[in-house]
# Entry
Amino acid sequence: MLFVSVGCILPISFTWFLACLFFGQTSEMMSIKWKGIVVIYENILVEKRGNVALITLNRPKALNALSPDLMRELSSAVDILEPDSTVGCLVVTGSEKAFAAGADIKEMKTKSYMDVYMSDFITAEWERIARCRKPVIAAVAGYALGGGCELAMMCDFILAAENAKFGQPEINLGIIPGAGGTQRLPRFVGKSKAMEMALLGQARIMDANEAERSGLVSRIVPLNELVDEAVSTGQKIADLSQPIVMMAKESVNRAYETTLNEGIRFERRLFHSAFSTEDQKEGMSAFSEKRKPKFKNK
Ligand code: CAA
# Structure
């Protein structure tokens, strides 16, 4: 009933979305969604541009504060998009003012230790993006603070607008970063800057230029081009062989989890296995024949 005319924008509450999952209507939802209809959850927008899924965090009044509901919707969107063979890359973005200003402080402030421990707060709602096997690009404009910075770091790389601001201000709230900030940030920017940011909080916000210099973001893009640039970058990735892209992502990520020798062994095994794919034959034949490859994801 909600899926009537192609081309319109459909509001779909997350509760309803869960009901669809429960009653097995997900594929119907998806098939209509991918025929040009933008599905609106309560806290995110999801749309497909070419072979790229664009997820926009959408709580503008709260500067995209990452409430548990928002993070559940984001996780569910990844659950749907990851196995969709027409999606080769995901882009996560926010508004021009805020990618996300952190976890939702108002929702957190009365929680007790037992509340957060028993619900496994953060783990339960947040980690899906980091586990996505397809590439995820964060397109960051404005504030990426606390959980917002942590969410961006869970993505595979970050494109930043000139006005992007990164920080871990949790210490000003009487907590520490809780979605990977103390672990991922030093891996990007080194211990000294990460420590300064974690200890000084609001007093040590990193601008886009410093973030690029420090390796936190891969590139700075003009604000008005950010989303288009992220999507077109995503499309370039989506045009490649999806299994090989997944292997490349898995192999780079392994560098953060293992020793150099083990990592190189892991890379070598995946490199060898790439030779079992039709796409390797196609890629190398196309090079030799001076034509564009047509990858089949096989
Ligand atoms: N949670 C809930 N609401 C938030 C929010 C957050 N993290 N950040 C902003 N908002 C809300 C504000 O309360 C305000 O709502 P009202 O209009 O209802 O008062 C609205 O968004 C606009 O915010 P401001 O008026 O504060 O906007 P500003 O431009 O003056 O300041 C800001 C912008 C500097 C980002 C400021 O909002 C701010 O400091 N936000 C909090 C940043 C923060 O501490 N983040 C860490 C959260 S804890 C965390 O993330 C834990 C973790 O590791 C997972």
About this structure: Confidence is low (pLDDT under 50) at residues 1-32. The radius of gyration is 20 Å.
